[in-house]
Design a protein that fits this description.
heterodimer, A: 14 residues, 0% helix, B: 256 residues, 43% strand
Amino acid sequence: KAGQGNIMNFFGKK
Amino acid sequence: LEARLEQANLLKKVVDAIKDLVQDCNFDCNDSGIALQAMDNSHVALVSMMLKAESFSPFRCDRNIALGINLSSLMKVLRCAQNEDILTLKADDAPDVVNLVFESSESDRLSEYDIKLMDIDQEHLGIPETEYSATISMPAAEFQRICRDLIALSESVAIEATKEGVKFSCSGDIGNGAVTLRSHTNVEKPELNVDIALSEPVALTFSLKYLVNFCKASGLSGTVKLCLSSEVPLLVEYTLASNSYLRFYLAPKIGD
């Protein structure tokens, strides 16, 4: 079953 | 800060569109305008709003300030404005409150509200410049309709862009559904145009709950832009006047 990605895994903290 | 907006309705619509996704956020004000960046609680979606200084007249911001505002409080106050009212936002250098003044252009009515500010420790994410594999622009109402139709069948939608067109498909307990749009130019009604710019085919799956939520911004712009690349968040963009924008990013579903 597909899981939901986390936006923080794509956009790093500034 | 002193920023005068010709129509209070613009801010009302923006806040209304994002208030269910994010609750407390900083409005970052500097001389280029008013920006907001916030994630939803589950860190699946990111809202990025930019109201450029040119969207206001006049706009003055002498010192960078972050106005930490609870959006439901802001909405309560914005509901006190008539859509056609002129809105002026004001704040001091180290403000405890933000002041909103609504002026009716037709009558001599002037209303004034202060909203208490909050200290919000919000991390800013760096959004990389991305050359997307597919950029689709379509009527905002069409995208809203597709999302609302498909959520009746499933919690997620596969968006597949190829040179044939863009296909939104889903499968759920009661069966399957799919809507395919092809590039389409309507000379008489350009607002109905569908434009698909593709550098390579791409297919990603997203949660419909979030997309339906983003579509609350449909009243802000006739057109919505979807940008997709493999394994990066979807960008859903509503362009506003004077280069201002409301953007939503949504992390894709991963793995099978």
